[in-house]
Every structure is written in C-alpha cells, then in structure tokens.
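Sequence, structure tokens reproduced for reference:
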Amino acid sequence: MNEPQSGPDFSKYILDRMKQLEERNLALREQKDRAEGEKRLIENQKLKYEREARKLRSELERLRVGPMIVGTVVEVLDESRVIVKSSTGPRLVVSVSQFIEEELRPGVQVGLNQQTFAVMCVLPSPRDPMVFGMEVEEVPDVTFASIGGLDSQIAELREIVELPLKRPELFHAVGIEPPKGVLLYGPPGTGKTLLAKAVANSTEATFLRVVGSEFVQKYIGEGARLVRELFDLAKSRAPAIIFIDELDAIGSRRIDGATSGDREVQRTLMQLLAEMDGFDPRGEVKIIGATNRPDMLDPALLRPGRFDRAIYVPLPNREGRYAILLIHTKGMSLGPDVDLRSIADLTENASGADLKAIVTEAGMSAIREERTQVLQRDFERAIAKVLQAERHGAGDELDLPNYA
C-alpha cells in the first residue's frame, strides 16, 4: 500500500496511526492486568489445594497408625522418660514424644504406641456419662409460690441455700462460714423433692440431682468413683447445688456382719462422707438431701459440717391444706357450691401428694359425667376414694376384683 509522504494527509495518517497504537497499547495493558489477576487467582488456588493435600496426607497417615494403648503415668523421670502402667498390666519405662506440649504428671491418662509403648498423646480425664446426666439443664417450672403450707420451711431453705450464693458478702462481714448442707426429712408426699425443684428454679447455680440408689453399683469401687466424679463436676461448675434424693438408700447406718453388697454400699457412703467434709475443701458446692427415713441414716452423715441444718417437712395442717388446694384448683372450673375450707377439714392427715390426687380425681369425676365444672360432691367422692386407698396401703390387703 502506498502511504502519503507529505502534506496534510500524512499528518492525519500519523495521528490516526498514533491513536490506533494507543488503543492497542491500552488493550494490551488490560489483557496484561487480566492475566496477572488470573495468575494470582491460580496461585491462591494452588496454595489452597496444596494445604488441602497436606491435610489429607496427614489425615491418611493418622488413619494408617494403629490403635493406641491406654496407660496411666505413674512417675515422671525426666523430660523425655516416664513410668507408665498400661491397660495390659505391666509397668514400663517409656519415651515421651517431642510433640506433646501438655505437662505430664502422675495419674494422667496417656495414649501409648502399640510397638514401642512411647507416649504419643495425653488423654482427657475420664468421667462417667452418668455423672453428666445428673446435671439439670432444663429449669423446672416449680416455684416457691406454687408450694403451699410450707412457708417456714421455704424461708429456712432459702436462707441456707440461696442467701450464701446471692449475698456472700453478708457472711464475710459477720465473719462466719455459710452452711454447707441441709437435710429435708418428713413423711412421704409432703413436698421435699418439690422444694428442691423450686431451689433449682430460683437460683442461677448449677443444679445436679441424683437418687441415692444410683450410687449402688455392681462392681467394687464403682459407687465411690461416681461419688468422687459427681463432686469433681460440681466443683468445676461452681457455684453448684447437689440434690441427693432418697438419701437413706446410700446413707443407711453401718452395721457389723454385713454382706459383700452391704460392704460396697458402706464404702460408697465413706466416699460420700469424705467428699462432703473431708481433707479437700468443697468450695461453693451446697448439698440438699431428702429422706423419709431419717432414723436409718448414719450418725456421721448428720453431724455439722456435712448437713448443718435438718428441716422437718411435716404433713400440712388445716391452713396448709387449704393453701395447697388453692394452688391445685387455681386453673380449674369450680362450681359455686365448692367450699375448699370444708374440703381441707375433710382431708385431715392428708399429704400434699394426696391433695393433688384428690383434686385430679375430682376433675376425672366431672369428666365421667361430661360436665365442665367440678362440684362439691366430686371432691367428696375423690376424698373417699383416695384416702380409702391410703388406709388400705397402710397395711390392709386391697380387695381387688378378679377379672380372670
């Protein structure tokens, strides 16, 4: 192609050519920037894939390693050697892996290599799952306002359990130690467990509940271990409250000539006594015990320092029965003829559980007749039915119908 050499056409050609070259240069720069961005993205992806590859290789190596033996450190000789007792039986002097950062001390559980028995890792301290199940996570819906006829017992219980947790400065100012434990005792059905539920509802402390019979285990030492782990858990979650229901199942009086099962229960009791007031301080851990057989309890369990206060939960009197009836009939549709005070007079010697059963039975009587209101005669029928069953249960044989 013939290009002009002079004149205005040549100048125009030069300007057009420069513009084309500038546009070309700009396009190349954009291509260069895109290429560098893609390069950085690819390099980042490469690093990511390399990290994933290293992680997968380490996981593969970990899976290739055989299972380790569980052992317990008996004595630390130096930084690289310890004496361990393996689960297979013998005591061994073994080396310690250089990758272990935790401090090794006697009693710590470790994982041992199957071939060399070298210490490869430190294991967490074992704790029975049953102990973790004793922690109450869902707060009960029972409050002190829903308990009738026990005003003095409620005031005393809150003074012993709640006050040291909510206002400890009062005890520091006076210069005394707050009570450590309280024993609730009285006839069945009077509201001992209900009081413990109200404590769990009203306090922000960790609440652990256990039935005394749960400490009775088949093998020697298992019950004592459960007691020890329960108190260890309470100390780690302090402030905490431990509620032991049916305390007489584990705290019965020690006697001579006991069987092997009785001796195991006594060993568990001795561990409980040591945890309640032993060599190690208990810290901010309160204990509430409940029993309807205080005459069976061991005297060592009742001394101050373990249970500082014993609260008797009696059968409700007339005013107490009336207060309980008011609580249980609060949401019921009552007829105009219902007189709760007369019902309280008719239910002498009835417990709180009996009164709740009477209210429920009266409601069932109204449902049987397809009524939406509960009348006075429903309560009278329920009283006759429930209290008659109580009298039969006291010793007479129930005359049950024969459906054969």
